[in-house]
Amino acid sequence: MTEHDQHAEERPALNQPDRPxxxxxxxxxxxxxxxxxxxxxxxxxxxxxxxxxxxxxxLVIISGMSGAGRSTAAKCLEDLGWFVVDNLPPALIPTMVExxxxxxxNVARIAVVVDVRGRRFFDxxxxxxxxxxxxxxxxxxxxxxxxxxxxxxxxxxxRRPHPLxxxxxxxxxxxxxxxxxxxxxxxxxxxxxxSSLNVHELRAKMDAQFAGEEEPExxxxxxxxGFKYGxxxxxxxxxxxxxxxxxxxxPELRPYTGLNEEVxxxxxxxxxxxxxxxxxxxxxxxxxxGYRREGKRYVTIAIGCTGGKxxxxxxxxxxxxxxxxxxxxxxxxxxxxxxx
Length: 340
Hints:
alpha/beta, 10 helices, 16% strand
């Protein structure tokens, strides 16, 4: 999930009625209050609890068979910038939408995963969907389907029981889940059969539906580090700058870091430094295209030198600037700078 919240006084308390507008007639106030006391959701016009319709976030509900790829579909939407909530009780979906509408545009698209783990609340889903329709909330239902054979094979491969099989077999749990979800499947706006799809193919289908005309972004973290402190465990790619002379042995440069202009100039005046930057950036363009095709949206590029202070820092800064200029969303992290 992303970090979006409003001030506490702007948050509607769950299951608490909104205070009536003093400008309304007493009769209208009494009608709304009575309806709210009975648990009903009161909607006035085309606005949600007084929020302009334009501020209401877009909503996608992800459901389907266990083992059919709900988590992959949700992760794909998260990578596309959606605010994703996993296993939210259906009765709370309208509240989630209202909170998003009050976020001043920070939460414009919400995806909610609904599955049989929340089967105690599942009966509330239809009521919640009706409530959303009354409030003019744009919502789509994505249903992940798969054959019994494919689902059995997937559950057996991870050696986990189906959440509904109880003391029975996996096929019994699958049959019970199909019956439970039959009506929701009929209401789905998009049904994706994942029986013969791998993870990358499923992500490609989700991208085609929700990414629009823009190619999904690749986000890069460029991290400088010192080999003497160990390799970054989350690095996808590692490059070694120890082929360049070390500014540590230049007394006037030793106190500074690779962020210093003189240190950076020293590093890039060494034979091979500029050539490395050019060719490595070219290599990353090739790798980035492949990552996008394979559905990978995040990459961590680690640039190392002995202590993570001079060469790796200077090269990381230049490489990050090159990536950013080519449209890659880039963050720079200097893991070990300052440790000496």
